[in-house]
Amino acid sequence: MAIFSLWVINKAGGLVYQRNFADGLAQLTSNEHLVLAGTLHGIHAITSRLSPIGASSGAQVIEGESFKMTIFLTATGTKFVLFTSLHETTTDSVLQRVYEAYADAVMKNPFHTPEMPIRSEGFDSRITALIGTGQS
Amino acid sequence: MATTSKQYKAIGDDIWKSRTEKINAELFALTYGALVVQLIQDYEDYAEVNKQLEKMGYNIGTRLIEDFLARSALGRCADFREVGEVVAKVGFKSFLNITPTVTHSQPQPSGSRPPSQANPTGSSFILTLDENPLAEFVELPEEALEGGLWFSNVLCGVLRGALEMVQMQVQAEFLSDVLKGDESTQIQVRLLKYLEEEVPVGDD
C-alpha cells in the first residue's frame, strides 16, 4: 500500500508536474519522465478511440506486476496520473483531492500560465499534506 | 428531466453550503464597481470597456472551470440543454449564490437521439438573473446608459471562458439589464460549435 509518484499532464501531452513519494519505481531523469508522459498521452488518445461501443474517455487504469497507474482525465483535458502499489484503495479520492488542490493552488494563481510547468510552493505543500512525505 | 434538474439544485446547494469559501458581498460588489469605473476612466469608451470586461471574464472563466469541476465532480453534459441547467443551478449557485432561471430556445422532443444530432449548432439558452450581486449598489449615470455599458459583462466572459475549456465554443451576451431600466436581466448563451475532443499536440 503505497503511493509512488504523481504526474500532471497538460492538454498537449506535456508533463507539467512530477513528484515522487516513495521508493519502488525505477529512478528516472526528468527527461525520461517527460518522454514517458508524452507516450502515455499518445497511448491514452489511442485507447479513447478503441472502444467498441462508441465514445470513451480512454484508459483509466493500467496495471503492471508490481504497480498500477490510475489516470484521471478531467473534462478540460488535463490528466492526473497516480502511480501506486497494486492494492492501494485510496487512489480515486486522492486524485479527486489532487484536482481540487490544482484548482485552488495552481489555476487560481493569476501568475500561473495555464499549460506551463507548475512551480508553486502552495501546490507542493497541499500535495505534501495530501499524500505525505515527498522526496526530491 | 424534473428529477435531474432537482438533483442539480441539490448539488449546487451543497457546494455553496459546505465547499465554497465565502467573502463579504459588499467587498465583492465594491471591488467590482471600482474596477468597472476605473476601466471607464482609462478607456473613455463604453464599447471598449464592455470588451475589456468580457476579456477579464474569459480569463477568470478558463481558471474557474477547474475549480467548478474539481468541487462538483460532475461528468460531461449530454446535450446543450443540460449545460444550461448545470450552469444555472450548480455554477451560478456555487459561485454567486443565485440561481438564474433558464429558458431553452430549442425545446427538443424527448427521446433518445444520438448526442451529436441532439446538439444542433445554434441552440441557446437564456439566463434570467433575478438578482445580481455585482450590481448591488449600482445606478448607471446617463452617460453610461447612452454609451451602452453592460455593467456585468464580466459574466459573459466567464461563461465563454469556462465553456470553451470544456470544448464548447459559445457566444454569451447580455440581452437586457435592470440597470438600464429593462424589466429583467438576461444573458443569452448560444452554442457556436463543439471543439475537437482534445487539442492536437503541437505548437505550444
List its salient traits.
heterodimer, A: 136 residues, alpha+beta, Beta-Lactamase, 5-stranded antiparallel beta sheet, 3 helices, 36% helix, 21% strand, globular, B: 204 residues, Muramoyl-pentapeptide Carboxypeptidase, domain 2, 4-stranded antiparallel beta sheet, 7 helices, 4 strands
Description:
The complex is a heterodimer of chains A (136) and B (204). Chain A has 136 residues and is an alpha+beta fold. Chain A has helices spanning 30-50, 91-107, 121-131, and strands spanning 3-9, 15-20, 61-63, 68-73, 79-84. Chain A has one domain (3-131): Beta-Lactamase (2-Layer Sandwich). Helices cover 36% and strands 21% of the residues of chain A. Chain A has a 5-stranded antiparallel beta sheet. Chain B is an alpha+beta fold. Chain B has a single domain, classed as Trafficking protein particle complex subunit 3 (Muramoyl-pentapeptide Carboxypeptidase, domain 2), CATH 3.30.1380.20. Chain B is built from 7 helices and 4 strands. Chain B has a 4-stranded antiparallel beta sheet with strand order 1-2-4-3, covered by helices on one side. Chain A binds chain B through residues 11-14, 41, 45, 48, 74-78, 96, 99-100, 102-104, 107-108, 114-115, and chain B through 62-67, 69-71, 73, 75-76, 165-166, 197-199, 201-202, 204. Chain A: It comes from Jaapia argillacea MUCL 33604.
